[in-house]
Amino acid sequence: MTIPTGTRRQYLPDIIKESQLSPERIVIVHTVESEPIPEVNNIWDLDEVNIHRWWNKGIDYAVERGAEYVAVLNDDLRLKNNPINKIAQAMHKAGVSLGYPYPFTGRICGYFFVLNVKDNLRPDERFRWWYGDNDLYLQAQKKNGILPVIVKVQHIEPNKLTSNSPSLMKLTEQDKIEFETKWQEYL
């Protein structure tokens, strides 16, 4: 599991506990100067905003240590009843590239998804803030498919960071253009 985090560290202890993963299987990607989170893997990326690069840093760190499935989570979630392992197990059984919590409307929920890293899917770093999850959805459909799995995940502050930040709103607009250009034949 990897979680990029900046200023919403208050949710991390619960996410770590509720993930039901051993600490050595958790990667926190710090996006601001901050103290390490005890017992888990901590890495820092203080360069310009690019959540997809942050996702990749955590994914790559996990893969280097033998991960076959990597859950990518926002730092403002509540997890119930072992959703990460349930999704990964269902994905393994179905042989798909990407899994995510259901119910959800839209392509996938960018706040929580699981990648089968053997399928070589990675977030496209041309997208800096938004649309990377939609991009992964389409990439996964072209590989071995996607699987929504019924699990309980609560997104505590959906879109709050974006809607309160003019700079993130601007990145979202730029990413939308990039996404529509990249996938124009499928949209």
Give the integer mean of the pLDDT values.
Answer: 95
From the 3D coordinates, which CATH architecture would you assign? Alpha-Beta Complex
The chain-level structural class is alpha/beta
What is the H-and-E element order? Answer: EHEEHEEHEEHEEHH
Might you state the CATH topology name? Spore Coat Polysaccharide Biosynthesis Protein SpsA, Chain A
Helix content, binned percent: 25-40%
Radius of gyration: 15 Å
**Total strands:** 9
Instruction: Count up the helices.
Output: 6
Low-pLDDT parts are none
Major sheet attributes: 4 strands, mixed
At the fourth level of CATH, the homologous superfamily is Spore Coat Polysaccharide Biosynthesis Protein SpsA, Chain A
CA-CA gap between termini: 31 Å
How would you explain this protein's 3D organization?
The chain has 187 residues and is an alpha/beta fold. The chain has helices at residues 12-19, 51-64, 83-94, 132-142, 160-163, 166-182, and strands at 2-5, 27-30, 41-44, 69-73, 77-80, 98-102, 112-116, 146-150, 152-155. The chain starts with a strand and ends in a 5-residue tail after the last helix. The strands form three sheets. Strands 4-7-6-8 form a four-stranded mixed beta sheet, with helices on both faces. Strands 1-2-3 form a three-stranded parallel beta sheet, with helices on one face. The longest helix has 17 residues, at 166-182. The protein is built from six helices and nine strands, in the order βαββαββαββαββαα.
